[in-house]
Amino acid sequence: MEFLLIIANVAVIWVLAVITPGANVLLTINTALNYNRHTASFSAFGVAVAVALWGLFGGSGLIILFSLFPEILTAMKVLGGAYLVYLGLRQLKQIREKKKLHIDPQALSSLPSPKRVFLTAFFTSILNVKTGFFVVSVFSVSVTQHITLPLILAIMFTMSGITLVWHLFLSFAFSRHSAKSAYEKASRLFDFLTGGLFTLFGIKVMAS
Question: Source organism's superkingdom (predicted)?
């Protein structure tokens, strides 16, 4: 009974965490709008795998290393922030290219490989220390002192499964024709906002 109660607590906390707008959500939405549902689904899987790893780190106590060796956390913040800044600047660069070539935004968006989409989402999430902090809060609030391997695995699959379902929903919702039509009307503005937000997220992470 205690096992199920812990999993229920984890599920509630993680649902609130995963729907919070952030770099991971923004990336999946942007991928769905620019490409299609199938391509965006690989972004969902990339984020879900990264969350599973964060769950493993939290359950095995590896996250404690961040407090014992602050330089590890600092390095991850710098790497994660720099990667988000790179994504933001790349997005802003695409706006300039679209304007220069005077073509439809959708015509420029040749489909990237599933591997590239997966890895981009994975690295965005695994280098996102905000995800790590959420994992710490989950384990500190929900888990007892004597944690077992089955419980760690159950928590990992719970967090990863919730993340996957949410991001697959985003992939479906924002790849629909109505969403794409709205995006086409304001693509430059949306690309500018997403590029700017990625850059700001990155700067904020590195400065924290």
Answer: Bacteria
